[in-house]
Design a protein that fits this description.
155 residues; alpha+beta; four-stranded antiparallel sheet; globular
Length: 155
Amino acid sequence: MEEQEMSRTLTQDEVSWLFKNLRRVNFFTKVTIDNIDRIVAKFGVYSYEKGKSIIKEGAVGGALYIIRSGECEVSKKKGWFGSARLAALKEGDFFGEMSLVSDEPTTATVRTLAPAEVFVLLKRDFLALKTDNKELSDEIDFIIERRKFDTVRAK
């Protein structure tokens, strides 16, 4: 992660918002309510100024990000000096989820287009949750394996 304001404790409103929106992240869709509660407790919230890179293409990812407010763009390098815009992200959109379960480099850069508040679940916290909770670990491993199977089948 690039420089940003330090994480702060989440408010009750933010916890409720995150609880609702976390279900949209592909491998948390089938996780039990109790385990979602454990996951939400590990999130921090960070503030980024306009024009800041949250992740850079080619770096090893280390977190899941969910945009609470603001806008971001996803871009990919094109040639030596250019870049191609792939997507615009807004409140409720997420990125970086596969970095929680993979050590592969990120495939794009995500940069803020406006000041943004972003919920962040660090990989180390996610892995600690999985280590401490076999049920959660089994749930997520099953979902990830299913996703891999669906990806291979779609090719």
